[in-house]
């Protein structure tokens, strides 16, 4: 990783910042936003990025009882179900 790449990751206006990137995602792409209720981003709520996504009827916002690290494991069943529904 170059110093420029590293610094861009922490730039609040870079593509690594979901509050910026969300609006750039194609409306044709459904998004599953999963967040733990103990994740520091929970304070920003749905408005942080999910509400900035272009509307897609298959996009889903899901809160689980977890922190930033344990969220994927805690939400694994819901993630699988969401992916299955995309195939319908």
User: Roughly what fraction of the amino acids lie in strands?
Assistant: 5-15%
Largest sheet: 2 strands, parallel
How many strand segments?
Answer: 2
Order of helices and strands: HHEEHH
Rg (CA only)? 14 Å
Shape descriptor reads globular
Question: What can you tell me about this protein's structure?
Answer:
It contains four helices and two strands, in the order H-H-E-E-H-H. The protein has a domain at 26-86. It is an alpha+beta fold. Helix content is 30%, strand content 11%. The radius of gyration is 14 Å and the shape is globular. A two-stranded parallel ribbon has the order 1-2. The mean pLDDT is 94.
In short:
The protein is α+β, with helices and mostly antiparallel strands and 88 residues long.
Topology, pairings included?
Layout: H1 3-9, H2 18-21, E1 32-36, E2 60-64, H3 71-74, H4 76-86
Parallel strand pairs: 1-2
Keywords:
88 residues, 30% helix, 2 strands, two-stranded parallel ribbon, alpha+beta
